[in-house]
Amino acid sequence: xxxxxxxxxxxxxxxxxxxxxxxxxxxxxxxxxxxxxxxxxxxxxxxxxxxxxxxxxxxxxxxxxxxxxxxxxxxxxxxxxxxxxxxxxxxxxxxxxxxxxxxxxxxxxxx
Length: 111
Description:
It comes from Streptomyces machairae. InterPro entries: ArsR-like_HTH, HTH_ArsR_DNA-bd_dom, HTH_Metal-responsive_Reg, WH-like_DNA-bd_sf, WH_DNA-bd_sf. This is Metalloregulator ArsR/SmtB family transcription factor. By secondary structure, the protein is mainly α. The chain is about 65% helix and about 10% strand. The chain has a single domain, classed as Arc Repressor Mutant, subunit A (Orthogonal Bundle). It has 6 helices and 2 strands. Strands 1-2 form a two-stranded antiparallel ribbon.
């Protein structure tokens, strides 16, 4: 059974994962389908080294998992519900804050 502290920790890990634009792009790509790092690097137009660092972060947070396939390793979301949560969160944020940026919020002292 989860405690309030462990629930808060899980949400904070998810928040840290979403705090970086590259990690957001990775998660949005993986919500569509599992992928190999080389393919993700090409799709997201980032270096394999940079991608590897972000995948390690997401893996350490428990949000993505690796699936060995011979000599290759495939990445996928740790749970299909994460993909649905990303869709729901993205839809809600875009519906409410479509015309806002964090810079505006920071200038007003909101975050």
